[in-house]
Amino acid sequence: MTVTLSERAAKHVSNFIAKRGKGVGVRIGVKTSGCSGMSYKLEFADEAAPEDIVFESHGVKVLVDPKSLPYVDGTELDYAREGLNEGFKFNNPNVKDQCGCGESFNV
Amino acid sequence: MALLQISEPGMSAAPHQHRLAVGIDLGTTNSIVATVRNGIAVVLQDEVGRSLLPSIVRYKADGCVDVGHAAQGAQSLDPRNTIVSAKRFMGRGLKDVSHIESMPYDFLDAEGMVRLRTVAGVKSPVEISAEILKSLRIRAEASLGGELVGAVITVPAYFDDAQRQATKDAARLAGLNVLRLLNEPTAAAIAYGLDNASEGVYAVFDLGGGTFDISILKLSRGVFEVLATNGDASLGGDDFDQRVYCWILDDAKIRFPSIEDTRYLLLKAREAKEMLTGHDVAPIHAELSGGETIDLKLKIDTFAEITKTLISKTLGPTRKALRDAGLTVNDVKGVVMVGGATRMPQVQRAVAEYFRQEPLTNLDPEKVVALGAAMQANVLAGNRAGSDDWLLLDVIPLSLGMETMGGLTEKVIPRNSTIPIAKAQDFTTYKDGQTAMSFHIVQGERELVADCRSLAKFELRGIPPMVAGAARIRVTFQVDADGLLSVSAREMTSGVEASITVKPSYGLSDDEIAGMLKESMEHVGDDVQARNLREQQVEAGRLIEAVEAALAADGRLLRPDERADIDEEIASLRKRIAGTDHRAIKAGIDSLNAATQDFAARRMDQGVRRALTGHKVIELKL
């Protein structure tokens, strides 16, 4: 089981954490909400919870809670720019279908 | 798929519910929009990577509107329809706008605010500013990938209510929800994180393209209070360009440059000025339309020399602001630099010398206000957990109060209180059987109502008849986050209620506020005198009324000579009320009190007798 960051994403995450001044890594998870069933959680992690599964990718810690892991296993988090907008993108192999914008998905 | 941002722990938004919020620095010369992304405040750029949007709007005959760089190019081509510095007209009447004769616009005087006639019709400054805000909103929505929940827009600290309201109206017109208007110096201080710094006094030195503002802020308990502001509405970086331009003409011995050459040389002057930030010498090479070439070298020392008077023009208002705040340079804990012109080394040096400390310069001075506004917007949009360490930052400029008997002001909310705020105070009736009360809401620092500004009046009716002083009327003053005041009065026993909503300081200009504050300082002595006099007058009037009521009811308890004594005391006190010596009135009150003591005792006895007659001891609850 694994969750990874692309090199570009890792660079941005470590940069954001440095400027934010605190944080041990980035937390990835899923929530049961949204128009297609589930949605992503993407947050700074100030500390690891005991049950967290921790991956390390390009020097950045990725924390995933065990309940979320089956839904995001194999995901690569990328950082992309689309027009004026920029941000993180989940490349999740588990997704069967998703809503138009992809913020909400189904496995 | 959509692009996501990293949220604070526990603050992930539901899909399609991102609380996108921006901070906007709506400047006189340039405007900027910023947001907090992945926990960091960043300025949003346009398609070609420019951060600054020139605050210029051009109206075209076909109804199209150009904003920013597109309009900037047309400035000399189509000056009448290309509006620069619309911020100077916001909420201002024609007579309030200075140097109107030197502006190329076709002004129309209108109720409340000046209007400009353009090829696309008559436009108000609100509409013009709305075009700038709209352009920034579109940029922000394209950059953030969604609709904005709101924006924090900055305004100069000295903006009055009319100017603030105009700014809000412009935002609404641009389709922006205003989370809050924030004072520019406060925004700059927030960007530097001073709101989390130690308490104390900070100075914000803002030298922009065409305006200079100095603000003295006091930070206490996480709240910034504006202690004083000063400045020069026609002093900025452009004046430095002008000085360099004059030096070029002088040195190259050019007498009458053409309009084209002037424009070209001003550009060269500006380049040289910018070069001298970080370099000791700037080469100036120019080829004029007449074929002459200019080849000069501007040394940093020369530059400092020719702009010395401009620097000293900033220090005058700075000195004044500190003096108005009642402080000295030793009280200032930190100095924040705002505005592109503060990049010039001689400006930084002069500020450092004056305040005897290095000013804060590590953030881009052109962006610092927008960044602070973005940070505030992020909090207000609800993107930060544990935001209890962020307090509201607006304060009331002048005290709010009520008229009491004798034309005195009773301050309910003192000036510099942070808003929102609610304060209640209990008042009572003045006469026996009084069933109505009228409330007069005033704003100002003076003791007498006549010297304060009247805001509103309302009445509370249906108070049940009671003896004077028995009714309890709770008056509540409430100022919401937008500075809107509502006052309600409630009689506590019967529950009758009345209320009114007013806008404090509406139409009060900055000068008026400053003037009113100054007056209150100058008149402290007079005011105390006046208050003492009025208080004694009211007290004497109340006593006479009570005695006369008692005489009418129980006058028969007195012998004729006793009655004559009391009548004489009343007459004498009446005479003293008309005078201006509060001590004499006090003496009269005391002597009338003494003269009626026996009478009061007799009335009391009679009252007790009446109450007891026909009752058995056992029936009395002792």
Explain what this protein looks like in three dimensions:
The complex is a heterodimer of chains A (about 110) and B (about 625). Chain A is an alpha+beta fold. Chain A contains 2 helices and 9 strands. Chain A has a 6-stranded mixed sheet. In chain A, strands 1-6-7 form a 3-stranded mixed sheet. With about 625 residues, chain B is an alpha+beta fold. Among the domains of chain B are: about 400-505, Substrate Binding Domain Of DNAk, Chain A, domain 1 (Sandwich), CATH 2.60.34; about 525-610, Up-down Bundle (Substrate Binding Domain Of Dnak, Chain:A, Domain 2). Helix content of chain B is about 35%, strand content about 25%. Chain B contains 15 helices and 28 strands. At the A-B interface, helix 1, strand 2, strand 3 and strand 7 of A face helix 2 of B.
Please name the CATH architecture of the domain at 400-506 in chain B. Sandwich
Shape of chain B: elongated
The number of distinct β-strands of chain B equals 28
Silhouette of chain A: globular
As residue ranges, the low-confidence spans of chain B are 504-508
- Which two chains form the greatest contact, residue counts included? A-B, 35 and 28 residues
Number of helical stretches of at least 4 residues of chain B: 15
Helix content of chain B: 25-40%
Distance between the termini of chain B: 84 Å
- CATH topology-level fold name of the domain at 400-506 in chain B: Substrate Binding Domain Of DNAk, Chain A, domain 1
Structural class of chain A: alpha+beta
Low-confidence residue ranges of chain A: none
Rg result of chain B: 32 Å
Cα radius of gyration of chain A in angstroms: 13 Å
Mean pLDDT of chain A: 85
Q: Note the quaternary state here.
A: heterodimer
Write down the secondary-structure element order of chain A.
Answer: EHEEEEHEEEE
Question: Which secondary-structure class do the elements of chain B indicate?
Answer: alpha+beta
The biggest beta sheet of chain A reads: 6 strands, mixed
Strand order of the largest sheet of chain A: 4-5-2-3-9-8
